[in-house]
Amino acid sequence: MKAHSLLKGLVGAAFLFGTAVSAHAADTLAAVKAAGTLKVGTETAFAPFDYIDAGEHTGLNVDLFAEIGKELGVKIEWVALPWDGVFPALEAGKFDVVAGPATITKKRLERYRFTPPIAEATIAILKKAGDTTISKPEDIAGKKIGVGKATAQLDQLKEFSETLPTKVDVREYPAFTESYADLAAGRIAGVANSLPNIAFVASQRKGTFEVVLPPFGKKSYFGFIGLKDADHAPLMDAIDAAMLKIKADGRMAELQKKWFGASFDTPDAVKDPAF
């Protein structure tokens, strides 16, 4: 009798535990809905996606998450921090999703879940206007080139450097804005970043910077990042659905034209990145 009671107790406990786990697995989206707020982590030094203009946080990500918030029926709360702290903070639960955005890579896909791409992210070089020593990507051999610390662009630049007769003198920066300042001051010869970013910077500072074409890296895309576990699956599913709706009705293309001057033909998902 005692054994029967014990067995019943264990079965009951297992049932309760399983129910708790099941309920918890759906909690992230439910918690966001209950709070009425989606917490979004990002750095604010990555124009035109996220940056500070006249003291205001602005950029494509701000506009796009405003639309995502409307679709989910929640407000957006931004959490700004340096890029190299974004992924640890996401895993520590400091916010629900990362705006970033981040280049979708094989290594990141193993650990994180990406939303549908928001723009192409292929890497290119920004140089000082009138610098005739750099007319094509290969001309950066042996030169000091700035790039963001802990970025996919850093990996791409190092890979490209190995193909050159003289390796690039890679200079890593906590934020791309610092690399642009050093480029303007002549302390480095160029900055390696994704084409949409440097095209925007060049358009904002005509006569100071120029883009070196063509891009030299493998074709890649930017996406937003969330956790890959079952707890966050309902939330990421909801964000994906909202973004695909925004893409289908033309709002995504309108925002791309606003911030890049042109819209990008992006896939609905990237399952097998080029690198």
UniProtKB/TrEMBL annotation:
GO molecular function: ligand-gated monoatomic ion channel activity
Solute-binding protein family 3/N-terminal domain mapped to chain residues: 37-263
Keyword Transcription: no
GO cellular component: membrane; periplasmic space
Record organism: Rhizobium leguminosarum
Keywords: Plasmid, Signal
SUPFAM superfamilies cross-referenced by the UniProt entry: Periplasmic binding protein-like II
Signal keyword on record: yes
Lineage of origin: Bacteria, Pseudomonadati, Pseudomonadota, Alphaproteobacteria, Hyphomicrobiales
Name of protein: Amino acid ABC transporter
